[in-house]
Amino acid sequence: MINDILLQLEKAALKYKDKTMFSDGQKALSFEQVLDKAKRLGSALTRFTDMRSPVAVMSGRNAYTPAAFLGIVYAGCFYAPMDSTQPEARLKGILGVLEPQLLIADNENIERARSLGFEGDILCIDELFESEIDEDALSARRREMCIDDPLYVIFTSGSTGAPKGVITSRLSLCCYINAYTEVMGIDDSDVLGNQSPLDYIAAIRDIYLPIFTGASTFIIPKQCFVMPAELFKVMNEQKITAVGWSVSVFTIAVKVGAFEGGKPMYLKKVCFSGSVMPCAVLRVWQENLPETKFVNQYGPTECTASCTYYEINERVSDEDTLPIGRAYRNYRVFLMNEDNTPTRQGEMGEICVSGPIVALGYYNAPELTEKSFIQNPLNKAFAERIYKTGDYGVMRADGVLLFKGRKDRQIKHLGHRVELSEIETAALRIENISECCAMYQKEKELIFLFYTGSATVKETATFLRGVLPGFMVPRKLINLDEMPRLANGKTDMQKLKEYFK
Amino acid sequence: MKEQLMEILEELRPDVDFEAEKQLITDGVLDSFDIVSLVGSLNDEFDIEIQVGNLVPDNFNSIEGMMALIEKLQNED
Asked: What average pLDDT score do residues A298-316 get?
């Protein structure tokens, strides 16, 4: 198994030289150029950082951003990507949790970075890429690196309102990329089409697969995903062969009839994840791309993007439900009951995961970490840390896992994890809202917010857009005279569901 | 027509100033679910049939773009 990201990058640069590694339609970097830029940026960072310390990154959706991440890896640090289009409150929240020594930003985002009131150093990525390579400083850092050093912190929705940073090791990443390569059969003839925002967990495939396999990654412009006719056109121009996308993209393409205008004719390997794939959607993709391999992936950020996969070998019908499948290599996946006893085959239990792919926890949040990452209660003999996913599953007799929903109020929306209580916490900060309840209409993929108080719908929506990431802002805001109640005084959610129509 | 269109847009996204925004798609103001829902509403309200080929940024970046598209499709009938 490949277990040294930097060594592998150096090997890939020797082998693939001027072959394109990352491109975005405007800029492109070859394997050699990525290595060169990463070493330059890494050399400079050795002067500003301690090893194993976080570096916040605000960089655009372009071919240079992965090179900046890799430069941070060269310096023995770990990166925390921040999406500059998110509201200021959110970005400040991330910096508050992360407390980095250093924030780096590209030309496009540096003013935004400087506007956040950050007290540490702020450096410009474009300038860092021009620094001299300092081989001595780099090898000194290299000698101290361990395989379990942290690689990145990725922030996700937290139920208390503070963003939660999942911190993942270099080893975990290597395990995942190796396992994914094996399942999808990715090699140096592939061109990957990146959809995931680069600050989001799913992007790790598009960033690291080129290093491990020699494939190229094309970062597809964001607007293509809103305009599917453009999407297929770009995919054919770039001859994209493999994608790992959020389920919502496949759904949208079918809803707007994208296949009536053509199809992505080079696409041979498809992995989808993020939420449950409706088989009515998958059927249309299968009919249009009969030679293409389709794989359903399941798993949370806390287990390095994934846990299980299911390769769909048969044509699905609309009423089918896809299994989530079997554990990837180096992932240990099992079910456990509420009372910490093993779940019997055929019964429902909580999906738990252990192995080298379990995250290092939530950054700077020891209590939260201790609650979710625990010693395996089924193992009294040696140390075995597990992550309890909060998802329910059932194991079929043939060892294939079925997904059965969430135990709390976390939802998956447009491929993003959203804690409904985080939306409520934000809404309650509006003075003229006295009570509220956020709910999700899964079929139509709409977040609702029901509230009481004199705040208008416009005021509420505008406020929420200022404090929450766009995908978390409810699309349907309903101002009620009073909240419907159950006999015990709790909000009557069944009654609220009537508004879904 | 503009009033009808504004009503649909206000209902869809009360937080957006549609008179001011001229890069709704290019700047990522509208997401893919907004577009799906908008296409459905426009088809119903204006009795048109927006095809996948019409889904390009120019037609949806601004209310002017959307009105031009609606007019074009109405005249094709």
From this structure: 95
**Average pLDDT of span A323-352:** 96
Q: Do B60 and A248 touch (CB under 8 A)?
A: no
Residue A458 to chain B, least CA–CA distance (Å): 5
Q: What's the CA gap between A137 and A64, in Å, rounded? A: 23
A45's CB contacts (< 8 A; 6+ apart) are A55, A71, A72, A74, A75, A77, A102, A128
**CATH value at residue A471:** 3.30.300.30
Last residue of a domain, one of A163, A182, A201: A182
- Helix or strand holding residue A395 (H, E): strand A385-395
Strands (E), A220-341: 242-246, 269-273, 293-298, 308-312, 326-327, 332-336
Which class does domain B22-76 fall in? Answer: mainly alpha
Q: Which residues of A are less than 8 Å from B56 in CB distance? A: 227, 229-230
pLDDT digits (tens, 9 = 90+) for B2-52: 999 999 999 888 888 999 999 999 888 898 878 888 998 999 999 999 988
Helices (H), A145-290: 170-184, 203-213, 228-237, 247-255, 279-288
